[in-house]
Amino acid sequence: MAGRQHGDDQGPPVGVSPVAVLVRDGVLPMELGLVHQLFGAARDPSTGERLYDVRTCAPRPGRVRTDADFPIYAEHGPATAAQADTLLIPASHEADETLRPGSLPPQLAEVIGSVTARGGRVASICTGSFVLAAAGLLDGRRATTHWMSSALFARTFPEVTVDADVLYVDEGAVLTSAGEAAGIDLCLHMIREDHGAAVAAEVARRTVVPPHREGGQAQYIRRPLEEPGLTSTSASRAWALARLAEPLTLADLAARDAMSVRTYSRRFREETGLTPMTWLARQRVDRARELLEQTDYTVDRVATETGFGTAVSLRQHFQAVVGVSPGAYRSTFRGRQGR
Length: 339
Hints:
45% of the residues lie in helices and 11% in strands. By secondary structure, the chain is an alpha/beta fold.
């Protein structure tokens, strides 16, 4: 998003996009912190200047209880939240799951609705989705929430199409994510949409988190951590990332971790929620995005550099993941840079 000057002299300069985190009593501090950490780490690659101005807001400025044993202080109120280009609502479990359609305090509903009415976007982390649903923003849309709350969410808000098996859902002006870790994925996704894959990857490097997980990836993986005595597929993944231009096969990957193809495929899905070749294709698309953003390579050369081999193959995979052709992506991204 291009960013704009706030109505008072406390706002960010032109070109720096205002982001507000709207916290309520019972807020999860980790979810508040991850928004500040990720958006705060985004920098213009040519100037090093920050790209976002992140502020903590509350329905009433002042002391806000958390779900931990310490409070936080929110300096800003609803007016700052209403002026944001991006408004994020982290979870407050004790309040969220009591919400019903139309039960949101009118002032809060008005603030949330005003952001999308101006062309901004509103996003939730974890059960913050209950707030968006209570405000009526999710009616007729797809949405997700933490898998443990998904059944209650679906019963409470029948007008919402609930997808409990994904990390996040992007419906344009309204986005929802699953638990805390999925909030990281959602923030990186929004940064990617605003400023491209290279900026988002640098944010991920700065904060030492995985650079990108697709929103459709499973949010609950039954064995997400390596167990003693079991071989991980992490070595082959790192090996493949360094060789994306090469014609890698499933057998190549399995051999790298000294497993049979069958065992490797099962272990890989347990660890990532994806099949090995789906994961590999998405890593190649991510690399293609960076090359389209940062170089003047032809589509044929991008296809070669990313291991797709042909421009036709690149276009097919790119369209499936990103939703546009490589040429359209490059034009759109560079047009966005020029604003």
